[in-house]
Amino acid sequence: MREAVMEVQAGSNLADADDVATKTSEMVRVLDAQGGAFVANGYPTLEQRRDRLDRAIALLEENRQQLCDAVKRDYGHRPEFQTTVADIFMALDSLKYCRKHTKKWMRRENRGAKFPFNILGAKAYIHYQPVGVVGIVAPWNFPIQLTFSPLANALSAGNRVMIKPSELTPHTSELLQNLVAKYFDETQVSVFTGGVDIAEAFSGLAFDHLVFTGAPSVGKHVMAAAAKNLVPVTLELGGKCPVIAGEGVNVKELVERVMTFKTLNVGQICLAPDTLFIKKELLGEFIELAKGWVRECFPDFASNPDYASIINERHYQRLMSYVTQAQALDVEVVGLAAEGDIGDSGGRKIQPTLFIDPPDHSLAMLNEIFGPLMPVKTYSDIGEVIDYLNRNERPLGLYYFGRSRTEIDRFQYETVSGGMVVNDVASHVLQDNMPLGGVGHSGMGSYHGFDGFKRLSHARGTYEQGLFSAAGLFKAPYKASTLKLISKIMG
To answer: N or C: which end of the chain has fewer CB within 10 A?
Structure first.
């Protein structure tokens, strides 16, 4: 019987506590059922894994419109195009990539026995085993993609899965719960909805691995809850992903690529460009080109159907507080879409906005933006940027624009980030054969492709003895001749 480490928050009323206890008992029941099925059914075959991946693919393909509608309801407004491409198509890409390569990934990995045991018939190899039951805590910003991408790795690796989607996307979460129950037996994949208390209880379950995507502040609590059961975790967090405009930068290209990703889901992306570092002499050109680009794409941000809303009022007010403080600090605040108000409270929309050289103690510099605001810091020497980055938390992504191989190498070897992209923003997320993950404050572990398969597997080392065993060398009484032989073998 697996247990959940759960603490009901102080101040919760009895009815809330009873509801949390009931739902926690149900989660523990399903966890036990999945763990029992994992043991009873043995090592999942290739056909079983492909069947589960096929059902996840069918779920997304057959219910695409319902999913888009649910996400739009949760946001107030989000363009269907963005949900289709960035949420559903990217999830399908992960699922199909894993399905295609699972057979190859399941093969044992020969390591080669050490001499002289290898010439006497010994074998050494790695066999990737499923770990058992994997928990996935998904965020609200891409509630489909960031559920199904880790699910693809978990199913490919042969695991059972329990999912806790975000309470900030209730319509999407409820739909996913109903659809998963339709396409999967509960002992294979199951979804649980609820608020923060349920998420806390979920994080305290005795999974065999827990994958969390979200804010670093929440990730710390998830890791602490998992540690009580010694559950290994993969944390996909975030941070202030920098953009560096370096030597030989094409400013027009910089604007197009940075602003495209900054306005996708209005910057509510863990890999969104957070802060731009640019030489002083290029600042004016960047601002003018950015204004032109934004006004061409979003001529009226408040009513534009291609421009998404901020997820809820709390996050809208958080972002607007950055604007208010910047103005109070006499920071130059540049609205790129239109003159006048930066935000439209009725639709929870905020226009793309630049803060020019805000002080390091400002809210915009102390916090991950996670929205359409972008601090711009000017510099004279590239070493200033490297020193600044190394004084602060390690980001999930780092984006360098320029043509200097020397500068590229300096960022490659003198800074640390989860990933690095040259002359683009976040495009490494599209590479299924590369790991996606953070380092330090931006996370630990990674998924995507083979790296995700390995992350949610146990690499079991197996050694098959040949004609000769080393045990005889340790048999007493010990002799000088034996020591000499061991010295030759190990030397």
So the answer is: C
Query: Is the pLDDT at 358 greater than 60, yes or no?
Result: yes
Q: State the DSSP code for 334.
A: E
270 is catalytic: yes
Residue 124's beta-bridge partner residues?
A: 463
Residue 172, CB-side half-sphere exposure with 13 Å CA sphere: 34
Q: Locate the DSSP E strands across 407-456.
A: 419-422, 436-437, 443-444, 446-447
Identity at 75, one-letter amino acid code: Y
Cis peptide before 139 (omega within 30 of 0): no
Quote the CA–CA distance of 125 and 24 in Å, as a whole number: 40
**Cα separation, 259 vs 254, whole angstroms:** 8
Of 200, 241, 270, 407, the active-site residue reads 270
Residue 313 annotated as catalytic = no
Dihedral sign of CA atoms 348, 142, 242, 427 in order: negative
- State both tokens at 464: 């098959």
More confident: 13 or 209:
209
Question: What one-character-per-residue DSSP string does 336-398 give?
Answer: SS-SS-SEETTTTEE--EEEES--TTSHHHHS---SSEEEEEEESSHHHHHHHHHHSPPPSEE
Is domain 14-237+445-460 classified as CATH 3.40.605.10?
Answer: yes
Which two tokens mark 365?
């510099």
Alpha carbons within 13 angstroms on the beta-carbon side of residue 322 total 30
For 33, half-sphere exposure in the C-beta direction (CA atoms, 13 angstrom radius) is 14
Higher pLDDT, 120 or 403: 403
Per-residue tokens: 250: 């094409």
- How confident is the model at residue 2, as a pLDDT? 55
From 200, 236, 368, 407, the catalytic residue: 236
Average pLDDT of the residues in 290-315: 95
* Residue 5: pLDDT over 60: no
d(CA 455, CA 65): 32
**Which stretch of DSSP H or E encloses residue 51?**
helix 46-62
Q: Which helix (H) or strand (E) holds 486?
A: helix 480-490
447 within 8 A of 437, measured Cβ to Cβ: yes
CB 203 within 8 A of CB 227: no
Spatial separation of the C-alpha atoms in residues 436 and 454, rounded to whole Å: 13
Residue 116: is the preceding peptide bond cis (ω within 30°)?
A: yes
List, by residue range, all CATH 3.40.605.10 domains of the chain.
Answer: 14-237+445-460
Reduce the DSSP state of residue 316 to 3 states and report it: helix
49, 158 Cβ separation under 8 angstroms = yes
Class in CATH terms, 242-437: alpha beta
Where are the CATH 3.40.309.10 domain residues in the chain?
A: 242-437
Nearest 5°: CA angle at 357, between 353 and 360?
110
Nearest to 164 by CA among 173, 156, 155: 173
Distance CA 403, CA 408 (A): 8
